[in-house]
Design brief:
The structure is a single chain. With 340 residues, the chain is α/β, with parallel strands linked by helices. The protein has 3 domains: 42 residues, no CATH class; 128 residues, Rossmann fold, CATH 3.40.50.2300; 131 residues, Rossmann fold (3-Layer(aba) Sandwich). The chain is built from 12 helices and 12 strands. The strands form 3 sheets. The protein has a 6-stranded parallel β-sheet, with helices on both faces. Strands 7-6-8-9 form a 4-stranded parallel β-sheet. It has a two-stranded antiparallel sheet with strand order 10-12. Helix 11 links the parallel strand 8 and strand 9. 41% of the residues are buried.
Length: 340
């Protein structure tokens, strides 16, 4: 092995290889959308060939952005969160950013600890999931004066700009649809709502809408079930063992609705002839099961894309006013519900 130490590759050597200025190479990293596609490809090739790695720490010291965004989600176990994070990640990449992702299992203490770690990495912006968080979370973000958005839920009066769907409206839409089919013996199944303002918003709205129509759900038909197809299947089977059965089950998300559909079938009932089942979310696969699931579409991809654009602009253009975006939910009528 040669004892001669190889010269460290720097931005100037990359620029010389491509025959552009060092500022153009810097722009390629920080604002790739401002560099012509042909030039971007040449720079990317030179970076790969020379093994150039930017010194993020040195750039941060000199006031240059780190190029990272911290994303906090309650869980990655569910397809809907994976979809929104993927859309967010793909879109911010077009603006020159990479995400640092952390999940906290609906635990506020873990969320706070993870947020501190992300801020220690000098992220340029922060994404929180949902509207409601411990006040210490908001105080920490405010103390750092860092651009932040709330993703997944929308409210006009949210603490930071929110990009998402109105979950109360989603609950109202599905409840109104079940009522319009003539159902009055209605059960509902929701996940635990502690630390989950999305589920609570849907649940409260379903109850309010049913009550306004004169429908009071018996206590033993008010089910709380964890995000699990197997658990929701079992709980549905238990529900349907009784002599008095509901004619419809409203579920707080499509995972629970899928399990409920399987549970009803296992109990010997036909969906939707004997019982109607509806969900919320329109997860991937909800249109493929038999019968296809009636649900309310929460536009995860659009939410992720809009949140990414909003936060990237807030970082790059700090003097501009940032506003939220309501990505409206949409009732999707399929085969799992029928008139009474």
């Amino acid at each position: 092995m040669s004892g001669k130490k190889q010269k460290k590759v720097d931005i100037v050597s990359v620029a010389k290889a491509v025959k552009v200025s060092a500022s153009t190479v810097s722009r390629y990293f920080n604002h790739p959308n401002l560099v012509k596609l042909a030039t971007r490809r040449k720079i990317e090739s030179a970076v790969r060939n020379q093994g150039y790695i930017r010194n993020r720490a040195a750039q941060t010291i000199h006031g240059i952005r780190s190029g990272t965004i911290g994303v906090l989600v309650p869980t990655l176990d569910h397809a809907i969160f994976a979809e929104v994070v993927q859309a967010f990640s793909d879109t911010v990449a077009e603006h020159g950013f990479t995400i640092l992702l952390a999940s906290y299992g609906y635990d506020q203490k873990r969320e706070y600890a993870n947020l501190r770690k992300l801020l220690e990495h000098r992220v340029d912006g922060v994404v929180l999931t949902g509207l409601e968080h411990d006040e210490a979370i908001f105080q920490l973000i405010d103390s750092q004066n860092i651009p932040s958005v709330l993703m997944w839920n929308y409210a006009e009066t949210s603490r930071y700009p929110s990009i998402g769907a109105d979950n109360a409206l989603a609950g109202k839409l599905i409840a109104e649809h079940i009522l319009s089919l003539g159902h009055r013996d209605i059960a509902y199944m929701f996940p635990p709502t502690t630390g989950n303002d999305r589920a609570e918003g849907r649940r409260s709205s379903v109850i309010k809408t049913l009550n306004a129509a004169g429908v009071i759900v018996p206590e033993h038909w008010q089910l709380t079930t964890v995000y699990s197809i197997s658990t929701s299947k079992r709980d549905t089977q238990d529900l349907l063992k009784a002599a008095q059965k509901p004619t419809a089950i409203i579920c707080g998300n499509d995972i629970l609705a899928t399990g409920a559909l399987y549970g009803a079938t296992a109990a010997g009932l036909s969906v939707p002839n004997d019982i109607s089942i509806a969900g919320i979310g329109d997860f991937k696969g909800s249109s493929d099961i038999e019968p296809a699931l009636t649900t309310v579409r929460l536009p995860a991809k659009r939410i992720g894309q809009n949140a990414a654009i909003t936060l990237a602009n807030a970082i790059v253009k700090p003097d501009e006013i940032v506003t939220g975006t309501h990505c409206e939910p949409e009732l999707i009528i399929r085969g799992s519900c029928a008139k009474i």
